[in-house]
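Hey team,

Filing this mostly as a record. A colleague (T.K.) asked me to run one chain through the structure pipeline before their review meeting, and I want the input and output archived in the tracker in case anyone asks later how it was produced. No errors, nothing strange. Just documentation.

Input sequence:
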Amino acid sequence: MTNREKIEFLYKEDGIRDKQFLNTLIHDDFRLEWDSSSGNSILDKNFILNLSEVINTNYEISYFEISHLIEENNQIVVKYNHKVATIENPKEIMLIAKVVAIWSFQEGKIMDGYLISKPN
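Output structure:
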């Protein structure tokens, strides 16, 4: 699988809910810098694996509407809207965040990322 195909699987095929896939996709020394409404955070691989569990537990539906996916060398930039439906109300789809992510690959794994998100 190419780096682009891995990112497409992550976002388009619900790879964010697949901890086994995430474990193989993300390098053990992974580092994510996330600028959000609550400030700047530096996060690791375990955060992403735990986030997968949170999404599985709290949302009946979780998907990403990708508007841009750009690849250059070993980096991929993705701009998307994250939409969900809660377990309590699975028929109501809500936009929860607008996001731009930059993923850097090394030897076929995501080594680091930068994410900026805005809640809706």
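Quick notes for T.K.: The helical segments are 3-12, 19-25, 45-58. Residues 60 and 88 are 8 Å apart (CA to CA).
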